């Protein structure tokens, strides 16, 4: 995967994941739209890269993985620590894209995040706060932010 470009990786995944009833053209269009949704259009021809090969930034790599997962347009998406290992700016960018997807297509997205920045925290509508595996708060993010 490190030697593939963003376009190649997403197109390849579209060919594998999308139904045979979709034409090659429709799959390509879905892949292109998904790349744009995740804000990766400027990096389409950039190699993904890895430990020994220079390529995308950490935030861009994370968005490519999410891009591949949302090709099928799932109505429910679980993301386990989608901002792990990213700096606060990259974390915000990734989560902002994810929130936009949820709002555009009325998707339900459940994400586990440890210690989000205040900017990322404010992007969420609802919050389930856990401590030692127990729910200590469940409700709107704005009410939690107000202390109520």
Automatic annotation (TrEMBL):
Which keywords fit this entry according to its UniProt record?
A: Transport
Q: Is Transport among the key words of this record?
A: yes
Task: Give start and end of each ABC transporter domain.
Answer: 4-84
**In terms of domain of life, where is this protein from?**
Eukaryota
Q: Which family does it belong to?
A: Belongs to the ABC transporter superfamily. ABCG family. Eye pigment precursor importer (TC 3.A.1.204) subfamily.
> Mind telling me what this protein is named?
ABC transporter domain-containing protein
């Amino acid at each position: 995967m490190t030697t593939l470009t963003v376009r190649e990786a997403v197109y390849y995944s579209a060919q594998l994941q999308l139904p045979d009833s979709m034409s090659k053209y429709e799959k390509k269009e879905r892949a292109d739209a998904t790349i744009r949704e995740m804000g990766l259009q400027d990096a389409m021809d950039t190699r993904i890269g890895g430990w020994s090969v220079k390529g995308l930034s950490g935030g861009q790599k994370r968005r490519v993985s999410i891009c591949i997962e949302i090709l099928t347009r799932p109505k429910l998406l679980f993301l386990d620590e989608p901002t792990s290992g990213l700096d606060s700016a990259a974390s915000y960018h990734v989560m902002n894209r994810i929130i936009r997807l949820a709002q555009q297509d009325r998707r339900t997205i459940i994400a586990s995040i440890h210690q989000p920045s205040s900017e990322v925290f404010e992007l969420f509508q609802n919050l389930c706060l856990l401590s030692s595996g127990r729910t200590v708060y469940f409700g709107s993010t704005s009410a939690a932010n107000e202390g109520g």
